[in-house]
Amino acid sequence: MTTAPAVAGVLTAQQVVATGSAIVGMQEESGALPWFPGGKTDPWDHVESAMALSVTGFVAEAEAAYDWSHRHQRPDGSWPITIVQGEITDPGIDSNFCAYIAVGVWHHYLITGDTAFLERMWPVVWSAIDLVCRFQRPDGAFRWGGDHRTHAMFDEALITGNASIYQSLDCAIRIAAEMRQPDDDWVRALDALDDAFTTRPEVFEKPSEHSMDWYYPVLGGAIRGRAGQELIARRWDEFVVPGLGIRCVDHRPWVTGAETSELALALDALGDTADAIELISSIQHLRDPDGSYWTGLVFDDGKRWPVEKSCWTSGAVVLAADAVSRTTAGNGIFRDAGRRLAPRV
Prior knowledge:
14 helices
């Protein structure tokens, strides 16, 4: 079994494994990892939760999740936006949701070194990334999604989705290199997206009130170094609530565990691991005795909201713990993201 992460004074390895076990407890027989038992499954959060299973040593369960992705991929390389207990409830295409399979597959391979797994999932990754590249606009940004029935694309380029696609392309290029099947089109797509982030940020929709639009360019690897530090500093006081976590929405008294964990990952990627650990510590008030995490807290009245323990919140906490503790071979999946580090072909 993989050695589980531990964060001194915050989480023991046993507690992190308990969180992984709680995620397993939410997994459906099909391998799907829904938001919560009986809830919807989307292809992005499903992969994030699977990544946490890889970290905590639940390898068979993680591979069952990736097998679910394999089985539910449509012929065009996409997945429906949402599925509830096997029934498609939103058949649309989200380009970011489809791209993220590359991050999960590369992460699992880094941890397990299982070449058979990588070979089995390679056609899935190839088909997904090939589809996603069709959503790229001439300015380098990616359209957020489309209608699966009519194949019409929605033109808006969302900053969070594009930052996540940036990391997905980076991982896809690494997988292709490992498979000795490099794809020049993917490299050109990532170069164009990198150029958009660094020289033409106005091509993206204006950042919203949600914290993800603030930190995701750092998390996905598009913005790093001094520029990344300045970006984080710019809105720190708007979102960070000392001792409680970060707001999901800048003007609401609501802190959320997943966004806080993702900001911790972004800070760690900038080399600010001490503050990342402090953020992970700040959201332990969301931890349930069974190891799972409540989604968030409305801190002006002390109520948890929504009243659910979400699979992906637990997953984000596990990934943040692994990153700051440098435990598994996949601990650098976010820290190492970036065009400048991806192999050229």
